[in-house]
């Protein structure tokens, strides 16, 4: 909740203006029953038409001022709520963008999507409601009680007798409401996850005819959300009936006592009519206070969830303990990439990679191959410092990646992954990726990535608009655009994680030839590119300077293609299954 206050604080002057206007409009509303009482009890008996018209005109002026004040204040409240929520969304999105991979795993993407959408919407509703009703309801409540007491103290005491029952009921219900709204938002996270998975996997769902199974899975998630919403709604729904019950008991008592007092000549008809009007005003004010409590309960639960993300500590920051020492005279140039006895586990129980060591010189290419789940992609994640090694060290140019900032690391890499993402924008924007590259760099990258034919086929070339996730491209075309993105920035280290699986063998061969040229003959002014290629095809890595064979998180073979055919049974088995053991050119 402290975060919400910090976001609202810059808008305090505008809020104070809105509160002042709202207060003025509310005071006008409170004058109306008092004027009505005066007309009935004091002015009508005089028979003066002028005084009646004057009092009626005054009531009309008060009504107009009340309407104008409330409308103006509500517009100000809407602007403050809008601007506050916009700032929260921007900062929350920025924070999410810089969360580490471990933090993203902990929060989960569906939960973050829910916090960025439904939770910020709840904050918007709460901030707006507090401004619209936070002044008006208390003013009507307190002002109504004060004026009613000045008119009829005895009847006001009857009204005040029911207030403690209402206050205790609202407090108990609200106290229970916040945990229920927390549970509701968790159920929303779960349903968001199911919807997200179905949207992303719609093609395979349709291909395998699993619509019924997915509908059942959605029904289960939706039913869970429905139960959570029902529990929260039923709890908060108790407020209005209880308030109505207590207040109607009070109203009955007021009418009975008022009739007795009028009959005894202790009060007047106009005062009783005015008092019942104030009673209605007080009733509506209490109902508004109840709505504020309901919306605040929901908003506080959402604010706490947003606060968890905003309060997440900075992770993967440069660690000075791993900063490089001063160069020692006589030492040679360090390897471009070096893994030294690296071990890592995602869950902290079973190692996902264990005791991995290798070194790669600048301009060389590393190939990584192995069965599914062997730890190939994990090595890439450690190299790019998406995670930190549990033991050992990962170095680039002799510098431990743990001492490097995210910006330093990202500038060194170009990367393309098998299931990478294309945005609903032009090819130019997807390849450039906000780096401000020249068209010449984009076209050169497309040529090396074998994507020139894609640009020629599509109307507009680089300006061709892609659909969401590149749905208007084939699988091979997507991968070539992604490869173009990876190559366009002249990266020092190029990471290709199974990024050519959708290419035919001829296109893959031309791509490998272009990459070898790029590695051995860099463009003027740029350092040689060092390559890391994760692949399932032997043909994609057989020309690499060093090949690692991964199995169960360990390196079971290392060397060149020819050496591994002689020394590594697993590599030889893969080679024979794919190529019959032949050495393809």
> Would you tell me which CATH topology of the largest domain applies?
ABC transporter transmembrane region fold
The proportion of strand residues reads 5-15%
Number of helices: 22
Q: What is the CA-based Rg, rounded?
A: 35 Å
Can you walk through the features of this model?
- The protein has 22 helices and 10 strands.
- Strands 6-7-8-3-9-10 form a 6-stranded mixed sheet, sandwiched between helices. The protein has a 4-stranded antiparallel sheet with strand order 2-1-4-5, with helices on one face.
- The longest helix is centred in the N-terminal third of the chain and has 49 residues, at 49-97.
- The protein has 585 residues and is an alpha/beta fold.
- Helix content is 64%, strand content 10%.
- Helix 2 packs antiparallel against helix 3 (49-97), helix 8 packs parallel to helix 12 (269-310) and helix 11 (239-263) runs antiparallel to helix 12 (269-310).
- Helix 19 (505-520) links the parallel strand 7 (493-497) and strand 8 (530-534).
Give a topology summary.
Elements: H1 2-8, H2 12-43, H3 49-97, H4 101-107, H5 109-133, H6 136-151, H7 153-161, H8 163-200, H9 202-207, H10 211-237, H11 239-263, H12 269-310, E1 337-344, E2 353-360, E3 365-369, H13 376-383, E4 391-396, E5 399-400, H14 406-412, E6 413-417, H15 427-432, H16 439-448, H17 452-457, H18 475-488, E7 493-497, H19 505-520, E8 530-534, H20 538-541, E9 546-551, E10 554-559, H21 561-567, H22 569-579
Parallel strand pairs: 3-8, 3-9, 6-7, 7-8
Antiparallel strand pairs: 1-2, 1-4, 4-5, 9-10
Helix pairs in contact: 2-3, 2-6, 2-12, 3-5, 5-8, 5-12, 6-7, 6-12, 7-11, 8-10, 8-11, 8-12, 11-12, 16-18, 21-22
């Amino acid at each position: 909740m402290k975060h919400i206050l910090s976001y609202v604080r810059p808008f305090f002057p505008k809020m104070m203006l809105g509160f002042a206007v709202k207060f003025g409009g509310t005071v006008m509303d409170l004058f109306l029953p008092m004027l009505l009482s005066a007309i009935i009890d004091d002015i009508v008996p005089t028979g003066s038409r002028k005084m009646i018209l004057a009092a009626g005109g005054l009531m009309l002026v008060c009504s107009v001022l009340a309407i104008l004040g409330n409308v103006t204040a509500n517009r100000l409240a809407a602007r403050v709520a809008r601007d506050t929520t916009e700032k929260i969304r921007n900062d929350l999105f920025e924070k999410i963008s810089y969360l580490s991979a471990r933090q993203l795993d902990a929060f989960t993407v569906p939960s973050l999507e829910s916090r960025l959408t439904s939770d910020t919407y709840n904050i918007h509703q709460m901030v707006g409601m507090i401004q619209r009703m936070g002044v008006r309801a208390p003013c009507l409540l307190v002002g109504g009680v004060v004026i009613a007491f000045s008119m009829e103290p005895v009847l006001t005491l009857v009204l005040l007798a029911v207030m403690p029952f209402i206050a205790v009921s609202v407090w108990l219900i609200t106290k229970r409401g916040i945990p229920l709204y927390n549970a509701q938002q968790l159920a929303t996270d779960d349903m968001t996850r199911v919807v997200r998975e179905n949207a992303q996997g719609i093609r395979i769902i349709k291909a395998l005819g699993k619509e019924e199974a997915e509908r059942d899975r959605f029904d289960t998630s939706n039913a869970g959300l429905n139960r959570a919403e029902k529990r929260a709604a039923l709890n908060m729904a108790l407020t209005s009936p209880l308030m109505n019950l207590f207040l109607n008991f009070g109203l009955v008592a007021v009418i009975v006592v008022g009739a007795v007092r009028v009959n005894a000549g202790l009060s007047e008809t106009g005062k009783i009519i005015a008092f019942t009007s104030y009673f209605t005003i007080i009733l509506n004010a209490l109902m508004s206070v109840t709505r504020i409590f309901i919306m605040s309960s929901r908003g506080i639960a959402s604010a706490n969830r947003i606060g968890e993300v905003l309060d997440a500590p900075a992770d993967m920051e440069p660690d000075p303990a791993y900063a490089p020492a001063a160069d020692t005279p006589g030492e040679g140039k360090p390897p471009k990439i070096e893994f030294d006895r690296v071990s890592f586990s995602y869950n902290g129980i079973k190692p996902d990679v264990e005791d991995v060591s290798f070194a790669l010189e600048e301009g060389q290419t590393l190939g990584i191959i192995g069965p599914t789940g062997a730890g190939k992609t994990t090595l890439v994640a450690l190299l790019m410092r998406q995670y930190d090694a549990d033991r050992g060290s990962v170095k680039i140019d002799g510098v431990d990646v743990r001492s490097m900032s995210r910006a330093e690391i990202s500038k060194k890499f170009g990367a393309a992954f098998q299931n990478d993402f294309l945005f609903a924008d032009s090819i130019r924007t997807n390849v450039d990726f906000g780096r401000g590259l020249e068209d010449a760099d984009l076209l050169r990258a497309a040529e090396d990535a074998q994507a020139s034919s894609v640009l020629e086929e599509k109307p507009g070339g680089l300006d061709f608009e892609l659909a969401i996730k590149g749905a208007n491209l084939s699988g091979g075309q997507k991968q070539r655009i992604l490869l173009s993105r990876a190559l366009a920035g002249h990266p020092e280290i190029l990471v290709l994680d199974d990024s050519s699986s959708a290419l035919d063998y001829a296109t893959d061969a031309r791509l490998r030839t272009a990459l070898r040229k790029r590695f051995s003959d860099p463009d003027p002014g740029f350092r040689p590119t060092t390559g890391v290629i994760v692949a399932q095809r032997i043909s994609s890595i057989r020309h690499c300077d060093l090949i690692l064979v991964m199995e169960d998180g360990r390196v079971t073979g290392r060397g060149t293609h020819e050496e591994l055919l002689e020394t590594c049974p697993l590599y030889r088995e893969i080679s024979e299954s794919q190529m019959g053991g032949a050495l393809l050119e």
